[in-house]
Design a protein that fits this description.
Its EC number is 2.1.1.222. One of its GO terms (molecular function) is 2-polyprenyl-6-hydroxyphenol methylase activity. The protein is an alpha/beta fold. It is built from 9 helices and 11 strands.
């Protein structure tokens, strides 16, 4: 069954990757025209990310690689990994177009340590909208630990699990409609569109998604041998998560009303221990 869920999600991302690359939301042309251009996501991360020049980094679930490329422009030696072959091919073309040496690898995230080797990375980066595609956050945390060298760092910003629980179709109230905690079976959504501006009509419309509570995520990382060094909750996300109820400024979307009632995203950092706790 797990393979069936993964295959459905991969078909969805394979079909959407070209539309995302063509959309102004991903600003591919800006990357080609401006050697200093960074994605909105990475620019938001900069105050917490710090100096990454010279670090060997891997971006898990990198999609078409614009965030990966942005990290490389900040001086890191980056590898991007994604399970969508179409996404990886587009990421390689973008990197070649801007003359950047970024390695992109097609692999399921749970096989990342097999595909890339163990213990070789100073930085594991995971960006917005990645964790909901994973059925098992503990297995993911173990993968992160296997990739990192001792004292290596995980940097994660993602949608807040409370946000993922909200019914996005309700505009009259903030209503919890979906599980906050990880479930064995995914929530299935049938959506004909995507989160960027496009006229493309898609045929693969069903997604399979899992939420993971903050406690589950932190516990998984601690059990995998990482120590938490940062947890910041934000009142914004880089897409219109609740349509019709948000406004955008500098690439980040916030609630128009009652913005103090709902965490929309979070940044988490953790460092791999030199040795396991006794």
């Amino acid at each position: 069954m797990a393979d069936e869920h993964r295959d459905a999600n991969r078909a969805l991302w394979d079909e959407r990757a070209p539309a995302h690359a063509a959309s102004p939301d991903y600003a591919v042309q800006r990357f080609l025209d401006d050697p200093d251009w960074l994605s909105d996501v990475v620019r938001f991360d900069l105050p917490r990310l710090g100096d990454i020049s010279g670090l060997r980094g891997v971006h898990l679930q990198c999609h078409i690689g614009t965030d990966t490329l942005s990290l490389a422009r900040l001086g890191a030696r980056m590898t991007g990994l994604d399970f969508s072959g179409v996404s990886v091919a587009i990421a390689r073309r973008i990197a070649a177009g801007v003359g950047m040496d970024v390695d992109y690898v097609e692999s399921d995230v749970f096989d990342a340590a097999i595909a890339l080797g163990e213990g070789g990375f100073d930085l594991v980066y995971t960006g917005i909208g990645a964790l909901i595609w994973l059925p098992d956050v503990r297995r993911w945390a173990q993968t992160v630990a296997r990739l990192l060298r001792p004292h290596g760092r995980l940097f994660l910003r993602d949608g807040h699990p409370v946000l993922w629980s909200i019914d996005e179709e309700r505009t009259d109230a903030l209503v919890l409609a979906y599980p906050y905690f990880e479930q064995a079976e995914p929530v299935r959504f049938d959506s004909p569109g995507t989160y960027v501006e496009t006229d493309v009509v898609f045929t693969n419309t069903e997604s399979r998604e899992w939420n993971h509570g903050l406690g589950e995520l932190i516990t998984a990382l601690l059990e995998a041998g990482l120590d938490l060094t940062m947890l910041v909750e934000h009142d914004s996300v880089p897409w219109e998560a609740l349509p019709g109820r948000m406004h955008c400024q500098d690439g980040e979307w916030r609630l128009v009303e009652n913005g103090d009632r709902l965490p929309l995203s979070f940044t988490l950092q953790a460092v791999k221990r030199a040795r396991a706790l006794s």
